[in-house]
Design brief:
homodimer, Tetracycline Repressor, domain 2, HTH_TetR (chains A, B), Homeodomain-like_sf (chains A, B), DNA-binding (chains A, B), DNA-binding transcription factor activity (chains A, B)
Amino acid sequence: MNAPLREPQQDRSRATRERLLASTVDLLATRGWAATTVAKVAEDAGVSRGAAQHHFPTREALFTAVIEQMYDNMTAEAGAALAELPTGPDSIAAVVAQAVAIYTGKPFKAALQVWSAAASDPALGEVIRPLELKLGRAAHKLVVAGLDPDGSRPQAHRLAQITLDLARGFGLADTLTDDSRRRAGVQAAWVEQLTVALG
Amino acid sequence: MNAPLREPQQDRSRATRERLLASTVDLLATRGWAATTVAKVAEDAGVSRGAAQHHFPTREALFTAVIEQMYDNMTAEAGAALAELPTGPDSIAAVVAQAVAIYTGKPFKAALQVWSAAASDPALGEVIRPLELKLGRAAHKLVVAGLDPDGSRPQAHRLAQITLDLARGFGLADTLTDDSRRRAGVQAAWVEQLTVALG
């Protein structure tokens, strides 16, 4: 008969863990790698230092968990978008917007910080590379499906790759300044290109 | 009659400074921000710690100098390419290759590290932003001139912007793994798109 007592405790523990992970993503995206210390994460999450260390004994453990969660979320976002694929005359614009949203969102900004830090920390690179590959595949599948719903346009595969590299370029440009206005114009021009190319 | 004595000393001093800056770019591009300490830079440059501190009293002074030099070099590279603009049937492929070379080269990899670090250090952002803007303008001027040598294709401006965002996306993808093989295919597909779009 321990279950009714244990369960709320497990829920609380899970909620604490989730708050710590969410604070980490926020801090990484807005303040960067150096500013994202376990102490600051715990403070922002409203969690004691001791409780934070119970969940994540080392900074590495915290970052490994957060990288996995961020990439799982972005990959799931691509999967969810694929399940509700836009149709009709604006479908190209819609799928490009979905791809751009993935690479200009907060999780990707946070991921970029870890990505940069991986240059000084090869173990981080080992964690990110397979997850980045998996995200890239899910995003590619989404964009191909959006550009070529009935499988009649073989050029859609290359155009999807260009779309994703472009989206990553947008994501990068957005880290230094708010690039949304400039990006909107370039994105619209790319949608126009795609529309012509897919005829 | 001090000049003959002073000059070689100034030359040596300038050479030491250049070696320190070159080591910093190498370290940033290959080992990342955290690993690029003044001590390691001095060691790699074969310069004493004291001499390094004479040139760059603080880590900030070193990074400010290196950022300015990197961006000046990349902007000069865009300017030099503009002066020797390719002509003929392969001119589109050539100018795209020049743009991609700027954003996948060592200085941009080093700049990306500073760029990420700027999230935790707003003063760094203040140094980079105007230089990034200046580089962006020089690169845009280069690509527009390559895509539209006689000023008859107004769409070249937007296509140049797409080219540069794409090139930055390539630059980013190349930091995590050697992306040159995959990139070659996507780049060729983009050149094909441009060729059709520019009729």
